[in-house]
Specification:
The chain is of the alpha/beta class. It folds into 2 domains: about 290 residues, Rossmann fold (3-Layer(aba) Sandwich), CATH 3.40.50; about 120 residues, Rossmann fold (3-Layer(aba) Sandwich). Helix content is about 45%, strand content about 15%. The chain contains 16 helices and 11 strands. The strands form 2 sheets. The protein has a 7-stranded mixed beta sheet with strand order 1-10-9-8-11-3-2. A 4-stranded parallel beta sheet has the order 6-5-4-7, sandwiched between helices. It starts with 6 loop residues before the first helix and ends with a helix. About 50% of the residues are buried. The structure holds pyridoxal-5'-phosphate (PLP). Pyridoxal-5'-phosphate binds next to α11.
Length: about 425
Protein backbone atom coordinates (compact mmCIF):
# COMPACT_ATOMS: atom_id res chain seq x y z
CA UNK A 1 0.00 0.00 0.00
CA UNK A 2 1.36 3.41 -0.91
CA UNK A 3 1.01 6.44 1.27
CA UNK A 4 0.60 10.13 0.61
CA UNK A 5 2.93 12.77 2.03
CA UNK A 6 1.21 12.24 5.34
CA UNK A 7 0.46 8.75 6.71
CA UNK A 8 -2.28 10.32 8.72
CA UNK A 9 -4.06 11.64 5.61
CA UNK A 10 -3.74 8.27 3.90
CA UNK A 11 -5.33 6.43 6.80
CA UNK A 12 -8.12 8.98 7.10
CA UNK A 13 -8.88 8.74 3.37
CA UNK A 14 -8.77 4.95 3.55
CA UNK A 15 -11.26 5.01 6.40
CA UNK A 16 -13.67 6.81 4.05
CA UNK A 17 -14.44 9.56 6.55
CA UNK A 18 -15.16 13.05 5.17
CA UNK A 19 -12.30 15.45 5.73
CA UNK A 20 -11.03 18.89 4.77
CA UNK A 21 -7.49 19.18 3.43
CA UNK A 22 -5.82 22.56 3.06
CA UNK A 23 -3.35 22.93 0.22
CA UNK A 24 0.17 23.78 1.43
CA UNK A 25 1.17 24.60 -2.17
CA UNK A 26 -1.29 27.50 -2.44
CA UNK A 27 0.66 30.53 -3.71
CA UNK A 28 -0.09 34.16 -4.63
CA UNK A 29 -2.36 34.24 -7.68
CA UNK A 30 -0.40 36.75 -9.73
CA UNK A 31 2.85 34.88 -9.38
CA UNK A 32 1.25 31.54 -10.31
CA UNK A 33 -0.70 32.96 -13.26
CA UNK A 34 2.38 34.72 -14.66
CA UNK A 35 4.25 31.43 -14.37
CA UNK A 36 1.50 29.54 -16.23
CA UNK A 37 1.60 32.04 -19.05
CA UNK A 38 5.26 31.19 -19.54
CA UNK A 39 5.16 27.44 -18.84
CA UNK A 40 1.82 26.51 -20.45
CA UNK A 41 1.01 29.56 -22.57
CA UNK A 42 -2.35 29.85 -20.78
CA UNK A 43 -3.59 33.34 -20.08
CA UNK A 44 -6.66 35.50 -19.56
CA UNK A 45 -6.76 36.37 -23.28
CA UNK A 46 -7.32 32.66 -24.05
CA UNK A 47 -10.43 32.62 -21.86
CA UNK A 48 -11.62 35.83 -23.51
CA UNK A 49 -11.06 34.27 -26.94
CA UNK A 50 -13.14 31.24 -25.92
CA UNK A 51 -15.92 33.54 -24.75
CA UNK A 52 -15.72 35.48 -28.04
CA UNK A 53 -15.99 32.29 -30.11
CA UNK A 54 -19.07 31.15 -28.18
CA UNK A 55 -20.64 34.58 -28.69
CA UNK A 56 -19.83 34.50 -32.40
CA UNK A 57 -21.64 31.16 -32.57
CA UNK A 58 -24.68 32.38 -30.65
CA UNK A 59 -26.96 33.01 -33.67
CA UNK A 60 -26.04 29.62 -35.17
CA UNK A 61 -26.66 27.91 -31.81
CA UNK A 62 -30.16 29.41 -31.64
CA UNK A 63 -30.91 27.79 -35.00
CA UNK A 64 -29.66 24.42 -33.77
CA UNK A 65 -31.18 24.63 -30.28
CA UNK A 66 -34.41 26.65 -30.16
CA UNK A 67 -34.32 26.59 -26.34
CA UNK A 68 -31.49 29.13 -26.60
CA UNK A 69 -33.72 31.79 -28.19
CA UNK A 70 -34.49 33.42 -24.83
CA UNK A 71 -30.77 33.91 -24.07
CA UNK A 72 -29.92 34.93 -27.66
CA UNK A 73 -27.76 31.86 -28.07
CA UNK A 74 -25.70 32.24 -24.92
CA UNK A 75 -25.29 29.07 -22.85
CA UNK A 76 -25.26 30.48 -19.35
CA UNK A 77 -26.84 29.82 -15.95
CA UNK A 78 -28.26 32.04 -13.24
CA UNK A 79 -26.64 33.16 -10.03
CA UNK A 80 -29.35 32.50 -7.43
CA UNK A 81 -29.24 33.86 -3.89
CA UNK A 82 -29.75 31.15 -1.27
CA UNK A 83 -31.41 32.80 1.72
CA UNK A 84 -31.27 30.04 4.34
CA UNK A 85 -28.07 28.39 3.24
CA UNK A 86 -27.47 27.00 6.73
CA UNK A 87 -30.51 24.78 6.32
CA UNK A 88 -28.69 23.04 3.47
CA UNK A 89 -25.09 23.25 4.66
CA UNK A 90 -25.80 22.71 8.35
CA UNK A 91 -23.69 25.72 9.31
CA UNK A 92 -24.63 29.34 9.89
CA UNK A 93 -22.50 31.84 7.96
CA UNK A 94 -22.78 35.60 8.25
CA UNK A 95 -22.19 36.58 4.63
CA UNK A 96 -24.44 36.02 1.61
CA UNK A 97 -24.68 32.67 -0.17
CA UNK A 98 -25.43 31.92 -3.80
CA UNK A 99 -26.00 28.96 -6.06
CA UNK A 100 -24.36 29.06 -9.49
CA UNK A 101 -27.05 27.11 -11.27
CA UNK A 102 -25.26 25.00 -13.86
CA UNK A 103 -27.70 22.18 -13.03
CA UNK A 104 -29.94 24.03 -15.48
CA UNK A 105 -27.42 24.93 -18.19
CA UNK A 106 -29.28 24.60 -21.51
CA UNK A 107 -28.39 22.08 -24.24
CA UNK A 108 -26.38 19.72 -21.99
CA UNK A 109 -27.93 20.05 -18.51
CA UNK A 110 -24.60 20.24 -16.69
CA UNK A 111 -21.39 22.18 -16.19
CA UNK A 112 -20.00 20.19 -19.15
CA UNK A 113 -21.95 22.39 -21.58
CA UNK A 114 -19.51 25.30 -21.88
CA UNK A 115 -16.32 23.24 -22.16
CA UNK A 116 -17.69 20.45 -24.33
CA UNK A 117 -19.51 22.70 -26.76
CA UNK A 118 -16.53 25.03 -27.04
CA UNK A 119 -14.19 22.17 -27.92
CA UNK A 120 -16.55 20.76 -30.60
CA UNK A 121 -17.03 24.21 -32.17
CA UNK A 122 -13.28 24.84 -32.34
CA UNK A 123 -12.80 21.50 -34.10
CA UNK A 124 -15.69 22.18 -36.50
CA UNK A 125 -14.24 25.57 -37.43
CA UNK A 126 -10.72 24.19 -37.93
CA UNK A 127 -11.98 21.38 -40.11
CA UNK A 128 -14.19 23.69 -42.17
CA UNK A 129 -11.36 26.19 -42.60
CA UNK A 130 -9.02 23.43 -43.84
CA UNK A 131 -11.62 22.64 -46.51
CA UNK A 132 -12.19 26.25 -47.48
CA UNK A 133 -15.70 26.35 -46.05
CA UNK A 134 -15.28 29.07 -43.44
CA UNK A 135 -14.72 32.17 -45.50
CA UNK A 136 -17.19 35.03 -45.31
CA UNK A 137 -16.30 36.85 -42.05
CA UNK A 138 -15.89 33.45 -40.40
CA UNK A 139 -19.67 33.48 -39.85
CA UNK A 140 -20.49 30.11 -38.23
CA UNK A 141 -23.92 30.06 -39.87
CA UNK A 142 -22.10 28.94 -43.04
CA UNK A 143 -21.36 25.73 -41.17
CA UNK A 144 -25.02 24.83 -40.86
CA UNK A 145 -25.35 24.44 -44.65
CA UNK A 146 -25.36 21.24 -46.74
CA UNK A 147 -21.74 21.46 -47.79
CA UNK A 148 -20.41 21.66 -44.24
CA UNK A 149 -22.81 18.95 -43.04
CA UNK A 150 -21.56 16.61 -45.74
CA UNK A 151 -17.99 17.24 -44.60
CA UNK A 152 -18.85 16.71 -40.93
CA UNK A 153 -20.79 13.52 -41.70
CA UNK A 154 -17.61 11.74 -42.83
CA UNK A 155 -15.78 12.79 -39.64
CA UNK A 156 -16.11 11.31 -36.18
CA UNK A 157 -16.05 13.15 -32.87
CA UNK A 158 -15.42 10.75 -29.99
CA UNK A 159 -15.18 11.06 -26.21
CA UNK A 160 -14.90 8.85 -23.11
CA UNK A 161 -17.18 9.80 -20.25
CA UNK A 162 -19.04 8.77 -17.10
CA UNK A 163 -22.05 10.47 -18.70
CA UNK A 164 -22.33 14.23 -18.67
CA UNK A 165 -19.37 15.03 -20.90
CA UNK A 166 -20.73 12.44 -23.31
CA UNK A 167 -24.07 14.26 -23.35
CA UNK A 168 -22.43 17.62 -24.03
CA UNK A 169 -20.08 16.42 -26.78
CA UNK A 170 -22.58 13.97 -28.27
CA UNK A 171 -25.43 16.47 -28.49
CA UNK A 172 -23.28 19.25 -30.00
CA UNK A 173 -21.38 17.05 -32.44
CA UNK A 174 -24.48 15.27 -33.73
CA UNK A 175 -26.35 18.58 -34.10
CA UNK A 176 -23.64 19.76 -36.51
CA UNK A 177 -23.89 16.50 -38.46
CA UNK A 178 -20.77 14.73 -37.18
CA UNK A 179 -20.70 11.02 -36.55
CA UNK A 180 -20.56 11.11 -32.75
CA UNK A 181 -19.23 8.26 -30.59
CA UNK A 182 -19.38 8.21 -26.80
CA UNK A 183 -17.44 5.61 -24.82
CA UNK A 184 -19.20 5.12 -21.49
CA UNK A 185 -17.88 3.65 -18.25
CA UNK A 186 -19.80 0.94 -16.35
CA UNK A 187 -21.15 3.52 -13.88
CA UNK A 188 -22.75 5.71 -16.56
CA UNK A 189 -26.50 5.88 -16.08
CA UNK A 190 -28.76 4.01 -18.49
CA UNK A 191 -30.89 7.08 -19.23
CA UNK A 192 -27.84 9.01 -20.41
CA UNK A 193 -27.06 6.24 -22.91
CA UNK A 194 -30.65 6.20 -24.15
CA UNK A 195 -30.81 9.96 -24.51
CA UNK A 196 -27.70 9.92 -26.68
CA UNK A 197 -28.84 7.00 -28.82
CA UNK A 198 -32.07 8.88 -29.54
CA UNK A 199 -29.94 11.68 -30.98
CA UNK A 200 -28.16 9.26 -33.29
CA UNK A 201 -25.01 9.08 -31.18
CA UNK A 202 -23.13 5.73 -31.09
CA UNK A 203 -22.78 4.70 -27.45
CA UNK A 204 -20.13 2.10 -26.69
CA UNK A 205 -20.34 0.53 -23.25
CA UNK A 206 -17.22 -0.54 -21.37
CA UNK A 207 -16.86 -2.83 -18.37
CA UNK A 208 -14.15 -0.68 -16.82
CA UNK A 209 -14.20 2.68 -15.07
CA UNK A 210 -14.01 6.18 -16.47
CA UNK A 211 -10.26 6.00 -17.21
CA UNK A 212 -10.79 2.75 -19.13
CA UNK A 213 -13.55 4.35 -21.23
CA UNK A 214 -11.28 7.31 -22.02
CA UNK A 215 -8.37 5.01 -22.92
CA UNK A 216 -10.54 2.88 -25.21
CA UNK A 217 -11.91 5.97 -26.94
CA UNK A 218 -8.47 7.49 -27.35
CA UNK A 219 -7.12 4.30 -28.87
CA UNK A 220 -9.97 3.79 -31.34
CA UNK A 221 -9.89 7.42 -32.45
CA UNK A 222 -6.13 7.28 -33.03
CA UNK A 223 -6.60 4.70 -35.79
CA UNK A 224 -8.44 7.10 -38.10
CA UNK A 225 -7.37 10.51 -39.32
CA UNK A 226 -11.04 11.40 -39.79
CA UNK A 227 -11.60 10.97 -36.08
CA UNK A 228 -11.22 13.63 -33.41
CA UNK A 229 -10.99 12.59 -29.77
CA UNK A 230 -12.01 14.99 -26.99
CA UNK A 231 -9.52 13.99 -24.32
CA UNK A 232 -11.00 14.78 -20.90
CA UNK A 233 -7.69 13.94 -19.20
CA UNK A 234 -5.59 16.30 -21.37
CA UNK A 235 -7.73 18.94 -22.99
CA UNK A 236 -6.73 22.57 -23.09
CA UNK A 237 -9.88 23.61 -24.95
CA UNK A 238 -12.24 21.95 -22.48
CA UNK A 239 -10.41 23.73 -19.66
CA UNK A 240 -10.67 27.12 -21.38
CA UNK A 241 -14.33 26.57 -22.25
CA UNK A 242 -15.12 25.84 -18.60
CA UNK A 243 -13.22 28.97 -17.56
CA UNK A 244 -15.55 31.18 -19.64
CA UNK A 245 -18.11 30.90 -16.82
CA UNK A 246 -15.97 33.13 -14.64
CA UNK A 247 -16.10 36.18 -16.93
CA UNK A 248 -19.88 36.00 -16.79
CA UNK A 249 -19.94 35.31 -13.05
CA UNK A 250 -18.00 38.52 -12.50
CA UNK A 251 -20.87 40.47 -14.09
CA UNK A 252 -23.52 38.50 -12.20
CA UNK A 253 -21.85 39.18 -8.86
CA UNK A 254 -21.63 42.88 -9.63
CA UNK A 255 -25.33 42.89 -10.59
CA UNK A 256 -26.13 41.24 -7.25
CA UNK A 257 -24.21 43.94 -5.41
CA UNK A 258 -21.47 41.61 -4.20
CA UNK A 259 -18.05 43.19 -3.65
CA UNK A 260 -15.07 40.85 -3.88
CA UNK A 261 -11.80 42.10 -2.42
CA UNK A 262 -9.28 41.28 0.31
CA UNK A 263 -11.72 42.33 3.02
CA UNK A 264 -14.68 40.56 1.36
CA UNK A 265 -13.45 37.19 0.09
CA UNK A 266 -15.36 34.94 -2.26
CA UNK A 267 -15.38 31.24 -1.33
CA UNK A 268 -16.33 28.94 -4.21
CA UNK A 269 -17.32 25.30 -3.74
CA UNK A 270 -16.73 23.10 -6.81
CA UNK A 271 -17.55 19.40 -7.24
CA UNK A 272 -14.50 17.72 -8.81
CA UNK A 273 -14.07 14.65 -11.01
CA UNK A 274 -11.07 14.56 -13.34
CA UNK A 275 -10.54 18.24 -12.52
CA UNK A 276 -11.22 20.06 -15.80
CA UNK A 277 -14.42 21.88 -14.89
CA UNK A 278 -13.48 22.98 -11.36
CA UNK A 279 -9.90 23.58 -12.53
CA UNK A 280 -10.90 25.79 -15.45
CA UNK A 281 -13.19 27.76 -13.18
CA UNK A 282 -10.46 28.16 -10.56
CA UNK A 283 -8.00 29.36 -13.20
CA UNK A 284 -10.56 31.87 -14.50
CA UNK A 285 -11.60 33.07 -11.04
CA UNK A 286 -7.98 33.69 -10.04
CA UNK A 287 -7.57 35.84 -13.16
CA UNK A 288 -10.74 37.75 -12.31
CA UNK A 289 -10.47 38.13 -8.53
CA UNK A 290 -6.83 37.25 -7.68
CA UNK A 291 -6.22 36.29 -4.07
CA UNK A 292 -9.66 37.54 -3.01
CA UNK A 293 -11.19 34.27 -4.23
CA UNK A 294 -10.68 30.89 -2.56
CA UNK A 295 -11.62 27.74 -4.49
CA UNK A 296 -12.38 24.45 -2.76
CA UNK A 297 -12.91 21.17 -4.61
CA UNK A 298 -15.40 18.59 -3.32
CA UNK A 299 -14.85 14.89 -4.04
CA UNK A 300 -16.60 11.66 -2.97
CA UNK A 301 -14.91 9.75 -0.12
CA UNK A 302 -14.44 6.82 -2.51
CA UNK A 303 -12.99 8.94 -5.36
CA UNK A 304 -10.72 11.73 -4.06
CA UNK A 305 -8.65 11.70 -7.25
CA UNK A 306 -7.48 15.32 -7.19
CA UNK A 307 -6.74 15.22 -3.47
CA UNK A 308 -4.57 12.12 -3.93
CA UNK A 309 -2.68 13.86 -6.73
CA UNK A 310 -2.27 17.13 -4.82
CA UNK A 311 -1.08 15.45 -1.64
CA UNK A 312 1.36 13.16 -3.38
CA UNK A 313 4.72 14.22 -4.75
CA UNK A 314 6.04 10.86 -5.88
CA UNK A 315 3.66 8.35 -4.32
CA UNK A 316 0.20 7.19 -5.37
CA UNK A 317 -1.39 8.54 -8.51
CA UNK A 318 -4.85 7.04 -8.21
CA UNK A 319 -7.39 6.38 -5.50
CA UNK A 320 -6.93 2.64 -6.12
CA UNK A 321 -3.28 3.00 -5.03
CA UNK A 322 -4.39 3.85 -1.49
CA UNK A 323 -7.00 1.11 -1.37
CA UNK A 324 -10.17 2.98 -2.30
CA UNK A 325 -12.69 1.50 -4.75
CA UNK A 326 -13.96 4.59 -6.68
CA UNK A 327 -17.55 3.40 -6.22
CA UNK A 328 -19.94 6.28 -5.61
CA UNK A 329 -23.48 7.34 -6.48
CA UNK A 330 -21.98 10.63 -7.65
CA UNK A 331 -21.41 9.32 -11.17
CA UNK A 332 -20.13 12.68 -12.46
CA UNK A 333 -17.30 12.53 -9.91
CA UNK A 334 -16.45 8.81 -10.16
CA UNK A 335 -12.89 9.30 -11.33
CA UNK A 336 -9.91 7.37 -9.97
CA UNK A 337 -7.09 9.47 -11.36
CA UNK A 338 -6.99 13.23 -11.87
CA UNK A 339 -5.96 14.95 -15.09
CA UNK A 340 -2.24 15.61 -14.99
CA UNK A 341 -2.66 18.75 -17.13
CA UNK A 342 -5.23 20.15 -14.72
CA UNK A 343 -3.00 19.25 -11.77
CA UNK A 344 -0.16 21.25 -13.32
CA UNK A 345 -2.43 24.21 -13.95
CA UNK A 346 -4.15 24.44 -10.56
CA UNK A 347 -1.95 22.82 -7.91
CA UNK A 348 -0.90 26.22 -6.57
CA UNK A 349 -4.31 27.87 -7.05
CA UNK A 350 -6.78 25.60 -5.25
CA UNK A 351 -7.18 26.43 -1.55
CA UNK A 352 -8.19 22.96 -0.45
CA UNK A 353 -10.17 19.81 -1.10
CA UNK A 354 -12.85 18.16 1.00
CA UNK A 355 -14.38 14.73 0.74
CA UNK A 356 -18.07 13.94 1.09
CA UNK A 357 -20.11 10.86 2.01
CA UNK A 358 -22.66 9.54 -0.49
CA UNK A 359 -25.48 9.57 2.10
CA UNK A 360 -24.89 13.27 2.70
CA UNK A 361 -25.19 13.96 -1.05
CA UNK A 362 -28.74 12.59 -1.00
CA UNK A 363 -29.59 14.53 2.17
CA UNK A 364 -28.48 17.78 0.52
CA UNK A 365 -30.32 16.95 -2.70
CA UNK A 366 -33.57 16.49 -0.77
CA UNK A 367 -33.07 19.56 1.47
CA UNK A 368 -32.40 21.76 -1.51
CA UNK A 369 -35.64 20.79 -3.22
CA UNK A 370 -37.63 21.19 -0.02
CA UNK A 371 -36.23 24.69 0.55
CA UNK A 372 -35.93 26.06 -2.97
CA UNK A 373 -37.56 23.66 -5.44
CA UNK A 374 -34.21 23.28 -7.17
CA UNK A 375 -33.53 19.73 -8.40
CA UNK A 376 -29.92 18.61 -8.73
CA UNK A 377 -28.11 15.30 -9.22
CA UNK A 378 -26.03 13.70 -6.44
CA UNK A 379 -22.69 14.90 -7.88
CA UNK A 380 -23.92 18.48 -7.80
CA UNK A 381 -24.65 18.29 -4.07
CA UNK A 382 -21.02 17.83 -3.08
CA UNK A 383 -20.11 21.51 -2.75
CA UNK A 384 -22.63 22.11 0.03
CA UNK A 385 -20.84 19.71 2.37
CA UNK A 386 -17.56 21.50 3.06
CA UNK A 387 -18.78 24.01 5.59
CA UNK A 388 -19.62 21.39 8.19
CA UNK A 389 -16.00 20.25 8.28
CA UNK A 390 -13.32 22.09 10.24
CA UNK A 391 -15.63 25.02 10.64
CA UNK A 392 -12.91 27.29 11.91
CA UNK A 393 -11.35 27.50 8.47
CA UNK A 394 -14.21 27.64 6.02
CA UNK A 395 -16.74 29.72 7.83
CA UNK A 396 -14.52 31.82 10.03
CA UNK A 397 -14.67 34.90 7.86
CA UNK A 398 -17.93 36.77 8.55
CA UNK A 399 -17.67 38.93 5.43
CA UNK A 400 -17.14 36.06 2.98
CA UNK A 401 -19.63 35.34 0.21
CA UNK A 402 -20.09 31.64 -0.59
CA UNK A 403 -20.93 30.23 -4.01
CA UNK A 404 -22.13 26.64 -4.29
CA UNK A 405 -21.73 25.43 -7.85
CA UNK A 406 -24.61 23.08 -8.71
CA UNK A 407 -23.06 21.21 -11.60
CA UNK A 408 -25.85 19.07 -13.04
CA UNK A 409 -29.37 17.75 -12.76
CA UNK A 410 -31.96 19.23 -15.10
CA UNK A 411 -31.70 16.34 -17.58
CA UNK A 412 -32.24 13.63 -14.95
CA UNK A 413 -35.55 11.92 -15.84
CA UNK A 414 -38.31 12.63 -13.30
CA UNK A 415 -38.60 9.03 -12.10
CA UNK A 416 -34.82 8.83 -11.54
CA UNK A 417 -34.85 12.09 -9.63
CA UNK A 418 -37.73 10.89 -7.44
CA UNK A 419 -35.63 7.88 -6.42
CA UNK A 420 -32.77 10.17 -5.37
CA UNK A 421 -35.19 12.44 -3.53
CA UNK A 422 -36.87 9.63 -1.62
CA UNK A 423 -33.48 8.23 -0.66
CA UNK A 424 -32.53 11.67 0.69
CA UNK A 425 -35.81 12.07 2.60
CA UNK A 426 -35.36 8.73 4.32
CA UNK A 427 -31.92 9.86 5.48
CA UNK A 428 -32.80 13.38 6.65
C1 LIG B 1 -18.12 16.31 -14.80
C2 LIG B 1 -18.85 16.79 -13.63
C3 LIG B 1 -18.20 17.44 -12.57
C4 LIG B 1 -16.72 17.64 -12.47
O1 LIG B 1 -16.03 17.99 -13.63
P1 LIG B 1 -14.60 17.39 -13.93
O2 LIG B 1 -14.11 18.13 -15.11
O3 LIG B 1 -14.77 15.92 -14.21
O4 LIG B 1 -13.76 17.58 -12.71
C5 LIG B 1 -18.99 17.87 -11.52
N1 LIG B 1 -20.32 17.68 -11.51
C6 LIG B 1 -20.97 17.07 -12.52
C7 LIG B 1 -22.45 16.90 -12.43
C8 LIG B 1 -20.26 16.60 -13.61
O5 LIG B 1 -20.90 15.97 -14.60
Amino acid sequence: METLNSDDLTSQLKAGKPLLWLNPQLAPAKKVLDGLETSHSMKLADIEAADALLRRWAPALVRLFPELASSNGLIESRLIELADADRVTGVKTDGRSFIKGDHALPVAGSIKARGGIYEVLVYAEDLAAQHGLLTIDRDPQQLLGDEARALFAIHTVAVGSTGNLGLSIGIMASALGFHAVVHMSHDAKQWKKERLRKRGVDVIEHQGDYAAAVAAGRQTAATSEKSYFVDDENSRNLFLGYAVATLRLKTQLAESGVTVDAANPLIVHLPCGVGGAPGGITFGLKHVFGDAVQCYFAEPCASPAMLVRLASTSGPKSVYDIGLDNITEADGLAVGEASELVYELVHELVSGVYTVADDDLFRVLARLRQLTGIEIEPSASAGFLGLKLKESVLHANPTATHIFWTTGGSFVPAEEYEKFYRQGCELV
